[in-house]
Amino acid sequence: MAIPYVIIPKGNPDNPEAPKKYYAQTKASSEVSLKKTRQGNFGRAAQRSAIPM
Length: 53
What we know:
By secondary structure, this protein is α+β, with helices and mostly antiparallel strands. It has one domain (about 5-50). The protein has one helix at about 35-50, and strands at about 5-10, 20-25. The chain has a two-stranded antiparallel sheet with strand order 1-2.
């Protein structure tokens, strides 16, 4: 599965004349509610705790 992204130029706030650096930033494909985020993280945490070490 491909992850969509864009290249964003960012300047140095301390030195505006410095050349910009370019960073990849992922693009959101949909909105996720806080409730769904919490439910997803809880499930992953429960799976991790079941693994014996």
